[in-house]
């Protein structure tokens, strides 16, 4: 048998090794070019999608006011924004008052969220159109209960059963209670409000407000504004009454005191614009940011006081001048209708 001897044995082994390395390198190049599953696959099944609404979850519109979609984002359970298709069901009818829903649903899932749209019983005025309505902004102060042998100290004290009779009258006659934003737009001539509209306000924030007035407002589900002297305010009431019908607004921080020489002598009229603004901003801070409306202490004000109120960012301000609010009035000097002890229900009705 003839044996073939490979004389260049080391070179042969070297060539085999090189060939193996080349084949391995080609394999790795090909493998790395293939798309990897973890880079292109969907989010793992244990991660859920969620819709997060932009803007407010409840939108208020005037009748015939166009709805402006505020948008949304889709996020996964890790909080990362993702791009998924969403179906939107919108049944809002801006020509009719009522409460509507806009439903957002992630396509091919049951994940959805609702935005409420409430079309209010007010309407936008067309150019040149004017409202013929007026608005009573009622001004109360203190309350007492004669069944407990209490008496009112002066005409500013209202017997609580009389107050309840007044609230019942408003409820039974379907009165409308505009917000301060609506009040501002009404006097600016932008909107019209229903003929039977009224705003309820209460000054100073004394104990009878909490003991007597708020429980009755809640009973009849009637919104009202309490103008608070915040230097004397227990801010725990913000949390305590957050689900109540009462809105806490400013009666100044520390300006409900003497020191001026105008009207009833309130100090606000004697302060600089900056001093007044600083006091008002402090009151807003103590009220958790509430700056919808302001009531001048003692009803006293000047042009500088109005500038302070505007600087603080209030939408409107009210005085103690006894008459109805009407379109064209200065929204930073609105009158109110004074409620007094002993007024009959007929007298109350006629004041509206």
For the structure shown, list the relevant keywords.
2 domains, TIM Barrel, 9 helices, 24% strand, disordered N terminus, 28% helix, alpha/beta, single chain, Immunoglobulin-like, 352 residues
List the helices and strands and how they pair.
Elements lengths: L8 H25 L3 H4 L8 E5 L4 E6 L8 E5 L9 E5 L7 E9 L5 E13 L12 E4 L1 E3 L12 E3 H13 L7 H8 L3 E2 L6 E6 L2 H14 L3 E5 L7 H5 L5 E5 L22 H14 L6 E3 L7 H10 L3 E7 L11 E5 L6 H6 L2
Parallel strand pairs: 2-6, 7-11, 7-16, 8-9, 11-12, 12-13, 14-15, 15-16
Antiparallel strand pairs: 1-3, 4-5, 5-6, 6-10
**CATH level 1 name of the largest domain:** Alpha Beta
Briefly note the CATH topology name of the largest domain. TIM Barrel
User: DSSP helix count?
Assistant: 9
The helical percent reads 25-40%
Order of helices and strands: HHEEEEEEEEEHHEEHEHEHEHEEH
The total domain count is 2
CATH superfamily of the largest domain: Glycoside hydrolase/deacetylase
Could you say what the CATH architecture of the largest domain is?
Alpha-Beta Barrel
Radius of gyration: 34 Å
Largest sheet: 7 strands, parallel
Spatial order of the strands in the main sheet? 13-12-11-7-16-15-14
Task: Summarize, please.
With 352 residues, the chain is an alpha/beta fold. The chain is 28% helix and 24% strand. It has helices at residues 9-33, 37-40, 160-172, 180-187, 207-220, 236-240, 273-286, 303-312, 345-350; strands spanning 49-53, 58-63, 72-76, 86-90, 98-106, 112-124, 137-140, 142-144, 157-159, 191-192, 199-204, 224-228, 246-250, 293-295, 316-322, 334-338.
């Amino acid at each position: 048998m003839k044996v073939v001897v490979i004389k260049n044995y080391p070179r042969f082994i070297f060539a085999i090794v090189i060939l193996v390395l080349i084949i391995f390198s080609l394999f790795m190049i090909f493998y790395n070019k293939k798309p990897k599953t973890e880079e292109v696959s969907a989010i793992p099944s244990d991660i859920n999608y969620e819709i997060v609404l932009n803007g407010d979850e409840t939108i208020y519109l005037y009748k015939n006011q166009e709805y402006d979609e505020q948008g949304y984002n889709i996020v996964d359970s890790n909080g990362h924004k993702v791009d998924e298709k969403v179906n939107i069901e919108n049944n809002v009818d801006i020509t009719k008052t009522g409460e509507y829903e806009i439903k957002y649903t992630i396509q091919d899932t049951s994940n959805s969220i609702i935005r409420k749209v409430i079309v209010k019983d007010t309407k936008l005025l067309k150019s040149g159109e004017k409202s013929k309505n007026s608005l009573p902004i009622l001004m109360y102060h203190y309350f007492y209960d004669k069944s407990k042998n209490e008496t009112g100290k002066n005409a500013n004290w209202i017997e609580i059963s009389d107050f309840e009779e007044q609230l019942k009258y408003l409820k039974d006659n379907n009165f409308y209670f505009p917000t301060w934003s609506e009040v501002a737009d009404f006097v600016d001539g932008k909107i019209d409000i229903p003929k039977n509209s009224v705003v309820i306000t209460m000054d100073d924030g004394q104990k009878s407000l909490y003991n007597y007035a708020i429980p009755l407002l809640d009973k009849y589900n009637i919104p009202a504004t309490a103008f608070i002297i915040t230097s004397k305010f227990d801010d725990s009431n913000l949390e305590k009454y957050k689900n109540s019908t009462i809105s806490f607004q400013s009666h100044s921080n520390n300006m409900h005191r003497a020191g001026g020489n105008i009207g009833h002598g309130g100090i606000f009229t004697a302060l600089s614009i900056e001093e007044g603004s600083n006091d008002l901003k402090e009151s807003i801070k103590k009220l958790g940011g509430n700056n919808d409306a302001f009531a001048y202490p003692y009803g006293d004000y000047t042009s500088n006081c109005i500038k302070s109120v505007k600087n603080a960012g209030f939408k409107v301000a009210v005085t103690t001048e006894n008459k109805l609010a009407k379109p064209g009035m200065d929204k930073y000097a609105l009158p109110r209708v004074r409620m007094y002890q002993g007024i009959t229900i007929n007298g109350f009705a006629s004041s509206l």
